[in-house]
Amino acid sequence: MDNRRRILFITPISHLKNFYGELHKKFKFVELLKPTYSSVKKILPQHDILFCAPNHQTFTIDEDLIKDSDLECIVTPSTGLNHIDVDSVPIVSIKNDEVLENIWSTAEHTLYLILSIVRKIKPTIELHDKTLGIIGYGRLGKMVEKLCTPLFKKVVCVDKNNSYEKLKDIDILSIHIDLNPTTYQMINKDFINQLNKSVYIVNTSRGEVVNENDINDYLRVGKVKGYATDVLQNEYNDEYSVLENNPNVLITPHIAGVTIDAQEKAYQRVLEKI
């Protein structure tokens, strides 16, 4: 009798050769290639574990979705959990996990967005005489600082609990803060009004830490020169973003952490934890 636990994957995994090989040894599983809310709800009761990832999700995992199942846990190879709204079962993630010290994908994507947005907006600029401001000085903020210090005249770092006085003269702002009630839409007109210059803003944290209407308004008047983001406020419910058709906005579809190297490390790690 095969007593292996059953996992339902609603994120692609067949391209991860190392992970896929280990998975076969320990679990039975189904890889749902085009998951919808209704299709997941229908077959979830046949499984013990739900495996999801924020960059491949167009809906939120909520209590109604899982109510007819008897899940052992929900697994996500991510640090952010805002694609999951469930309290009734444990959530296994890589938040605060030591594996993150060896995953540079999001920091590298931040650098890509910085370089891309300053070359997208005319007139284009160089970075060597500019000041980069980093808000959120945790693991990612420190990685971005390390990557960007050789490129900028100055890199200024503040934690979300620090005074923002040091950011007043920056040219580019890079956001690396957690989403919680105190950081919800904290990058807004009031925050931007404290800055002495018109700035470029880059966001690889969470869409909800930015007030998109305020950003859009300030893009129109030039107070924000350009906005480059890997995340949007309503990306899990397919709602329209006011930023989508703004020519001074660059959007990537939540792929900052989706290099093959990062996925192999993160997916293997959560597999070890279940």
Describe what this molecule looks like in 3D.
There is one protein chain. The chain is an alpha/beta fold. It folds into 2 domains: 6-100 and 260-273, NAD(P)-binding Rossmann-like Domain (Rossmann fold); 104-251, NAD(P)-binding Rossmann-like Domain (Rossmann fold, 3-Layer(aba) Sandwich), CATH 3.40.50. It has 8 helices and 13 strands. The protein has helices at residues 17-26, 37-43, 63-66, 105-120, 139-148, 189-192, 212-221, 260-273, and strands at 6-9, 28-31, 49-51, 61-62, 73-75, 84-85, 91-92, 131-135, 154-158, 172-175, 199-203, 224-229, 249-251. It has a 6-stranded parallel β-sheet. A 5-stranded parallel β-sheet has the order 2-1-3-5-7, covered by helices on one side. Strand 1, helix 1 and strand 2 form a beta-alpha-beta unit. Helix 1 (17-26) packs parallel to helix 8 and helix 4 (105-120) packs across helix 5 (139-148). It is elongated, with a radius of gyration of 20 Å. The two termini are 21 Å apart.
